Automatic annotation (TrEMBL):
Class of this enzyme: hydrolase
Pfam families found in the cross-reference section: Ribonuc_L-PSP
PANTHER family for the chain: 2-IMINOBUTANOATE/2-IMINOPROPANOATE DEAMINASE RIDA (PTHR11803), PROTEIN HMF1-RELATED (PTHR11803:SF58)
GO molecular function term, any single one: hydrolase activity
Record key words, sorted: Hydrolase
Family: Belongs to the RutC family.
Enzyme Commission code: 3.5.-.-
InterPro entries, per database record: RutC-like_sf (IPR035959), YjgF/YER057c/UK114 (IPR006175)
UniProt superkingdom: Bacteria
Protein name as annotated: RidA family protein
Source organism: Pseudoalteromonas spongiae
Length: 127
């Protein structure tokens, strides 16, 4: 089996720190996208949970698209929220994006190492 690493050179995190992991890894028809936060150019975009959720999901979609995967290939989404009160708002954004192709999902509340409200990762399959 061939393993393809997308963005293996790493990205840029907050404060310009080098991120030592691939943005995604593909193997055997599966694509695993690393957790994405609402960041652009290494900086968290300010805003409420709606705006931050949209950007975190869009960052996943951008990586999926680069790797040749579409929304219909998403099998599972993991979500970390920093406050349980964000759950309903996140669900609204999630439904807007995945309405036609709802994947399985886990949503949890935890502290994040980046000062933002949400982190999202996706798993895709294309047989």
């Amino acid at each position: 089996m061939t393993i393809r690493r997308i963005g293996a050179e790493g990205g840029t995190g907050t404060g310009g720190q080098h991120l030592p992991f691939s943005r995604a890894v593909e193997a055997g028809g599966w694509l695993k996208v690393s957790g994405q936060t609402p960041m652009r150019d290494g900086e968290v975009v300010e805003g409420g949970i709606i705006e931050q959720s949209r950007l975190a999901i869009q960052n996943c979609i951008d990586i999926m698209t680069e790797a040749g995967y579409g929304l219909e290939t998403v099998t599972h989404v993991s979500v970390v929220l920093t406050d349980s009160r964000y759950f309903q708002s996140f669900n609204k954004v999630f439904a807007e994006v995945f309405g036609e192709h709802p994947p399985a999902r886990i949503c949890m509340v935890a502290d994040l190492v980046v000062d933002c409200k949400v982190e999202v990762d996706v798993t895709c399959y294309k047989g």
